[in-house]
Amino acid sequence: SQTIHQWPATLVQPVGSPLSLECTVEGTSNPNLYWYRQAAGRGLQLLFYSIGIDQISSEVPQNLSASRPQDRQFILSSKKLLLSDSGFYLCAWSGAERTEAFFGQGTRLTVV
Amino acid sequence: QKEVEQDPGPLSVPEGAIVSLNCTYSNSAFQYFMWYRQYSRKGPELLMYTYSSGNKEDGRFTAQVDKSSKYISLFIRDSQPSDSATYLCAMSWNTGFQKLVFGTGTRLLVSP
Asked: What are the tens digits of pLDDT across the range A9-59?
């Protein structure tokens, strides 16, 4: 069966520090991968998506970047965090021929 | 107007009640509809996945799609305190790689 791992679960970082959140998927090949941010009462905002290695699309201009160095690995990064980067970050995957997405357990990021 | 509208709640019901959660949408091109359950500080979990109009049942859960009214529902029978969570609807135009459009979620509280 397929599983998705996302870490860390909780992170507190100072303003201006770098960020690296990692997500890996097991049990499937060539998944579509996604990074979402969820703000309270505002639903899920799609940040990045990837349909293949080194194929990254950004949905909104921001202080974040994403990379996919391997087929089942998706990384969310920032060189310098802003207070506004605080939030709940979710990684997700979907099958190449499917629509429904499956989510990781999320990372709660607090920038102080 | 948002593409997908969902009442944020909270919806409070006693244990054993039948719960009805709803979403309305504006884009008639949507064909695939999903319901996710999200516990506090966790990632969303896929509950139901349906295509086009009609009903789909899985245990205590029934998903209903009325494309003519652009309205989808999730019914929970014999609700339990463990059903207390936020329920998000999501939809897409086609299968394969798609960006899902999410509602903002309805918070459900089931009291013992």
From this structure: 999 999 999 999 999 999 998 999 999 999 876 789 999 999 999 899 998
Q: What is each CA distance from B36 to A71, B43, B103, B105, in whole angstroms?
A: 26, 9, 10, 9
Structure tokens, A3: 């599983």
The C-alpha atoms of residue A93 and residue A109 are separated, in whole angstroms, by 21
Distance from CA of B21 to the nearest CA of A (A): 16
Cβ within 8 Å, pair B42-A105:
yes
- Written as six digits, the tokens of A70 are 């391997």
CA distances from residue B5 to A106, B80, B91 in whole angstroms, order as listed: 24, 25, 12
Find chain A residues with C-beta within 8 A of B97's C-beta. 32, 49, 51, 94, 96
Residue type, A15: V
In 3D space, the residue among B85, B1, B81 whose CA is nearest the CA of residue B44 turns out to be: B85
